[in-house]
Design goal:
This protein has 588 residues and is α+β, with helices and mostly antiparallel strands. It is built from 19 helices and 28 strands.
Length: 588
């Protein structure tokens, strides 16, 4: 990023570009209405009601051309404060601006118009000083649909996405990243590698995992569990539904009731499909009294949760309605928080380093003291817990970034941020300190003085949602999983039907030693079989013919390498076992 530009300046540039986009579209299609056009991460968008006109990506070059024609005439925004009556007259042609004006006025906000040059709009401040000079590197990216105000009961609008950067080099780098991301799109990879599918009959946002994909899920989940087991965690199991009262007590019902799948029984009782696991786990702890000697209690579970996401917000595995959490909760005393947080931190570092994510960035997500109504618990306890997390991060000698207002509603958290292979940053693991649910469910231990002592609860998500994590990881490695994670580790390709039985016998030898194989016994040419195995990104390919049946040596094609390797069979098997055992990222 150009160091001369702050994030605020960048946001102003992109918001200004959204105005320019609106002006261009309204000139090209005078019957259209512009709604909102904010800056967003990495760009901006503008929503339009296009009436009977359907915009497609093919229209983007025409819109860009019009934007370039308009830009030289935009030198400075002129702002004016107006009354609601004036707004109703000025924007009588645009129902979206009228609705915004009424909402702003009702909320006590000022109504401002701006005009950079023959384009009056209703908008708050936040634009560049001189658009014609500062808005040089703009690119429109795509078109999508979006409900007005995000409500599916409202009109469906046309949303045009774009981006803007201070320099051509930064814009080019971002466009390269977008193109690379398109090639690595996990939805595309999931189909090509036969990992998961979606069915219209099952419903959107409900992924169906194939045998290969299920194996991939199991492998990463088992690795997380092994790391947890070494730190003293115990497995628990909970049901997928609960009475409404559990979430009313925890505070989740009031906060998330619109996101819940609700069930009414024949007797009229109201249940919900669980959107998270922590309230259930509190009841496992509460099943009996605990002495301070019993603490910490560490419960871990991998289980599916459900949230009623809007259809328009669903996106492959990244945003789904049924997702699987590798969830764990530590019930401990205040004096044990530091040790337990550091143990979880160790698990996170080990897991992500093994998978090729180095140098995780740490974000301390804090409450916003000006919006205490959004949080549970007393501010004094919030500040004390946040200070405790600050001290823990300092001990690890980490340069943390603090994010005001990013805390969970029940406590502050450490978010671990990972950069993928094309430079995008993702939030991955999370450690959250919860002092509100122990209070709401009256969770205590008997301390040394025989008194009931309030405990704390630590939420520990290593992958968080397995679906979302795998969407990130597929794109990070482009579907070329390391050997230990590859659903098929070795593809055996007999050159003809004559050698199928030999390939199958050799495959059984590899399977018995713990290597995952697949024999391609189809009646295809060797070249086609090799191309098929290569497209599935299988780490090792062995073509089996006369030479392999008459010697103890095999010719192995290694993923990503041009030359085949000829090696003694037993030596190669031993080598493969070594790579799998150490979870190597490299194929050697």
């Amino acid at each position: 990023m150009n160091t001369e530009y702050s994030q605020e300046s960048l946001n102003a540039m992109r918001h200004t570009a959204a105005h320019l986009l609106a002006k261009a579209v309204l000139e090209l299609w005078p019957g259209a209405h512009n709604a909102i056009g904010p800056s967003i991460e990495n760009g901006f968008y503008q929503d339009f009601d296009m009436g009977d006109v359907t915009l497609t990506d093919a229209d983007l070059p025409k819109i860009e051309k019009k934007m370039k024609e308009i830009l030289p005439h935009w030198e400075k925004f002129a702002f004016s404060e107006i009354t609601l009556d004036e707004a109703n007259k000025l924007f009588s042609h645009n129902p979206y601006k009228l609705q915004l004006a009424e909402e702003f006025a009702a909320g006590g906000k000022k109504l401002l118009t701006n005009d950079p040059g023959n384009f009056l709009d209703l908008c708050k401040m936040g634009h560049v000083e001189n658009p014609s000079k500062e808005l040089k590197h703009v690119k429109l990216l795509s078109i999508a649909g979006a409900y007005w105000r995000g409500n599916e009961k409202n009109n469906m609008l046309t949303r045009v996405y774009g981006t803007a950067f201070p320099t051509k080099e930064e814009l080019d780098q971002y466009l390269w990243q977008i193109e690379e991301a398109r090639k690595r799109d996990h939805r595309k990879l999931g189909k090509e590698l036969d990992l998961f599918a979606f069915s219209d009959l099952v419903g959107p946002g409900l992924a169906l995992w194939t045998p290969r994909g299920t194996l991939l899920r199991q492998l990463v989940d088992e690795y997380v569990w092994n790391l947890r087991y070494q730190k003293g965690y115990q497995r628990v199991t909970i049901p997928h539904i609960t009475k409404k009262e559990l979430y009313e007590r925890s505070g989740h019902w009031e906060k998330f009731q619109d996101d819940l799948f609700k069930i009414t029984t024949r007797e009229g009782h109201e249940f919900a499909m669980k959107p998270m696991n922590c309230p259930h786990h509190t009841q496992i702890y509460a099943r009996k009294p605990h002495s301070y000697r019993d603490l910490p209690q560490k419960y871990a579970e991998t289980t599916m949760c459900y949230r009623d996401e809007q259809t328009g917000e669903l996106h492959g595995l990244s945003r789904v309605r049924a997702f699987t959490q590798d969830d764990a909760h530590v019930f401990c005393r205040n004096t044990q928080i530091k040790e337990e947080v550091l143990l979880i931190w160790d698990i996170i570092n080990t897991f992500y380093t093994t998978l090729g994510f180095d140098n995780l960035r740490i974000r301390l997500s804090l409450h916003d003291p000006l919006k205490m109504q959004q949080y549970l618990g007393e501010e004094k306890l919030w500040r004390a817990t946040e200070d405790q997390l600050r001290e823990i991060t300092r001990e690890r000698d980490k340069n943390i970034v603090e994010a005001l207002g990013e805390a969970a509603f029940y406590g502050p958290k450490l978010d671990f941020m990972a950069k993928d292979s094309i430079g995008r940053e993702w939030q991955v693991a999370t450690i959250q300190i919860d002092f509100t649910q122990p209070e709401r469910f009256d969770l205590t231990c008997i301390n040394e003085e025989g008194e009931h002592e309030r405990i704390f609860m630590i939420h520990a998500a290593i992958m968080g949602s397995i679906e979302r994590f795998l969407s990130i990881y597929m794109e990070h490695c482009g579907g070329a999983f390391p050997l230990w994670l590859s659903p098929v580790q070795v593809a055996l390709l007999p050159v003809s039907e004559k050698y199928i039985s030999f390939a199958e016998a050799f495959g059984k030898k590899l399977q018995s030693s713990g290597i995952r194989i697949e024999v391609d016994s189809t009646n295809e040419s060797v070249g086609k079989k090799v191309r098929n195995a290569t497209s599935l990104k299988v780490p090792y390919i062995i073509v089996m013919g006369e030479q392999e049946t008459t010697s103890d040596r095999i010719s192995v094609r290694v993923r990503g390498k041009k030359e085949a390797l000829t090696i003694d069979t037993n030596t190669w098997i031993s080598h493969i076992h070594g790579l799998i055992q150490k979870r190597s990222l490299l194929l050697e």
